[in-house]
Amino acid sequence: RKEVEQDPGPFNVPEGATVAFNCTYSNSASQSFFWYRQDCRKEPKLLMSVYSSGNEDGRFTAQLNRASQYISLLIRDSKLSDSATYLCAVNRHAGKSTFGDGTTLTVKP
Amino acid sequence: DVKVTQSSRYLVKRTGEKVFLECVQDMDHENMFWYRQDPGLGLRLIYFSYDVKMKEKGDIPEGYSVSREKKERFSLILESASTNQTSMYLCASTGVQETQYFGPGTRLLVL
Predict the structure, then answer these.
(1) Inter-chain residue contact B42 with A102, CB threshold 8 Å
(2) Average pLDDT for consecutive 10-residue bins of chain B (111 residues)?
């Protein structure tokens, strides 16, 4: 079993839709959590950190459920520009991340 | 802004060649990492370093070595390139906030 698992998708949604991604992790000692966005043929870039209380950045909401060992990303009012691959990352040791394989999102007009 | 640069965007090498991939970061980060990314396999950690002259194996170190002589520079070495090392190689660094800052990647093709 992989340490971090994501539904690979693809998710194909119309503009304006709400879409949610989940990511489960197996190590309960994990300390910090992140969502990254990766555009085609580009490097991953931080989308948002995930805090225990949940956090929001515009149309994006991230949540952490330590008891069930998963994190989630909710995108509201999807835009064409949201089309990308979304990677979750889990840190056990300082700075060392384990990444999920990514979930591909395509937003269509 | 943190900047992580990699020495090449694209490389073509022959089987058996020694390959050097260099990574430089300008934010005085302690931690640096090398990953490879392949379709269906995600990002896999090859080696990482928490300080100058320190290195630790990641999940897939076989066939690779690294060098960190200066804090800002972390090099990945393929001692004898093989076709199964054809991949996208990504360097990253982290500071105190643990966010990974990635370089633009090097697409390596080994013929």
Answers:
(1) yes
(2) 89 97 94 94 93 93 97 97 97 87 97 97
